[in-house]
Amino acid sequence: MRDAIMVALKREATDADGKKTRKLNQIATKLVELAVNGDMQAIKEIGDRVDGRPAQAMELTGKDGGPVEIETNAREQLAHIVSRHTSAGDTTEDTGGA
Questions:
Q1: CB 45 within 8 A of CB 32
Q2: What is the rounded (10 degree) CA torsion for 8, 12, 15, 18?
Q3: Alpha-carbon distance 58 to 50, whole Å?
């Protein structure tokens, strides 16, 4: 669908003065005219296209608006890794890279 729309927008057209242009240019011109005449949706659309949409704030909260609780099983994972290495006979010491 996108490709078909892009083909249509690139088609040659004739503007109000009889000059050759592209359909996309006609749409852009109409959008600007609407904005100049006070159309708020057109003004918003131009702002979004030119400046980008404003960032949306997002607030995360836990149950009943409290803090977010993070659960981890890092201790269990570390214990599993250590037991796996010690049971495999890996008794090398970590000498801090020395």
A1: no
A2: -150
A3: 24
22 with 9: CB under 8 angstroms?
Answer: yes
The amino acid at 98: A
* pLDDT at 93 (0 to 100): 56
Q: Which residues pair with 21 in a beta bridge?
A: 13
**β strands within the chain, DSSP E:** 12-14, 20-22
Distance CA 98, CA 89 (A): 22
Q: Is there a domain that residue 27 lies in?
A: yes
Q: Give residue-wise pLDDT tens across range 29-59.
A: 999 999 999 999 999 999 999 998 888 888 8
Cα 3 from chain centroid?
22
Quickly tell me which residue has 């607030």 as its tokens: 59
Number of domains in the chain: 1
- Looking at the predicted structure, is the pLDDT value of residue 26 above 60? yes
Domain that holds residue 15: 2-51
